[in-house]
Amino acid sequence: MEGFHVKGSEALCLGLSLAASGLLYYLYKKNKTALDKLDIAPHLPIDSQLKDILKATPGACLKYAIVEGTVQPVGEPLMSHFQKETAGVLQKFTLSEHRLVWSNLTRTWIDNIRVLLQRENAVPFVLVGPDETPVRVLSPLQASGTHMEMIHEKFHQVSSGLVDIVGQYLSGEKPKGQLETEEMLKVGAALIGAGELVLAADGTLSLQPPSDGSEYFLSLVDFDSLQGELKSAAYWCQWLAVASALLGTAVLVWVCRRYYCHRKAQRQLEEERRIFERMSEEPRASVNLVEEQVENICVICYTEPRNCIIMDCGHVCCCYSCYQALVQRKCPICRQDISRVLPLHFV
Ligand SMILES: [Zn+2]
Ligand SMILES: [Zn+2]
């Protein structure tokens, strides 16, 4: 690798594309595994027979099952900050700052969002079936899936004066405003849950995160839509991982090609150097002949005889030492690119 350097931009592209393809492949596998698990998991109605099914199961535990029921709080529900009549069991309040930031790379203003505050609250709740059989939902904040709906969204716009606008252009940051949102899992919502189903010794049914590391889902959408979301995510992750890996391979091929060209040029220079070295060791009779002819003196140093044929233009104008000292590989006479040099022999 002597004299050859991988450029910073090439290393960055290669690193980013390989990291992105690795991450996307991991997400694809995660979604695909979750999808396969959901496909084979038993879909059980919440009713009085559920306890009998679990009693007949070893360890009174189903490692992965899907249940569907209506959300009911165990004690007092949570009340919305913004819609006073709305009660729920999970609540997420977010305050985020929206601004435009000047990008020197793209020469445009880019949207930037910064979360200033996020708070999640939960109270114990159950899923109840048509005959009021309850299934306690444990650790709901660990679950994936869309299980909260947006019940409040308000954007507080920033008003800027002339002085502020000038300051924003100088600093490269334009505040747009703050967005406050409140999401809730409402009491009475129909919820689908996929996880480990357990019957405790006291007869309580519970849904909890699977102990084998499978994905725990709580979702407001129906089962088919949940599968559709996972399929779509897996599909995009798969193709983006392939595209990212192809980009990484293309960068790698480009770097290898550059290295090959660099090595080829170095070998050629080495070959030329050896030829001229051999020539300098030959008897000087022919050189003496050249020295007698002033017009055959190197046009650069005016000392040594001309002994190089510059290819492809064919000019014979300098000695090998001066050729080696050229800053650019261009003919000193016609400025054409030099592909190689040949030794000039007088006989
Ligand atoms: Zn010279
Ligand atoms: Zn030339």
From TrEMBL:
It is a multi-pass membrane protein. Gene3D superfamilies: Zinc/RING finger domain, C3HC4 (zinc finger). The lineage of its organism: Eukaryota, Metazoa, Chordata, Craniata, Vertebrata. GO terms for molecular function: ubiquitin protein ligase activity; zinc ion binding. One of its GO terms (biological process) is protein ubiquitination. It comes from the Eukaryota. GO terms for cellular component: mitochondrial outer membrane. It is an enzyme of class 2 (transferase). Keywords: Membrane, Metal-binding, Mitochondrion, Mitochondrion outer membrane, Transferase, Transmembrane, Transmembrane helix, Ubl conjugation pathway, Zinc, Zinc-finger. It comes from Tetraodon nigroviridis (Spotted green pufferfish). Residues 298-335 form the RING-type domain. It holds the Pfam family zf-C3HC4_3. The keyword Lyase does not apply. Signal peptide: none annotated. It catalyses: S-ubiquitinyl-[E2 ubiquitin-conjugating enzyme]-L-cysteine + [acceptor protein]-L-lysine = [E2 ubiquitin-conjugating enzyme]-L-cysteine + N(6)-ubiquitinyl-[acceptor protein]-L-lysine. InterPro entries: MDM2_MDM4_MUL1, MUL1-like, Znf_RING, Znf_RING/FYVE/PHD. Its EC number is 2.3.2.27. This is RING-type E3 ubiquitin transferase. The chain crosses the membrane at residues 233-256. It is found in: Mitochondrion outer membrane.
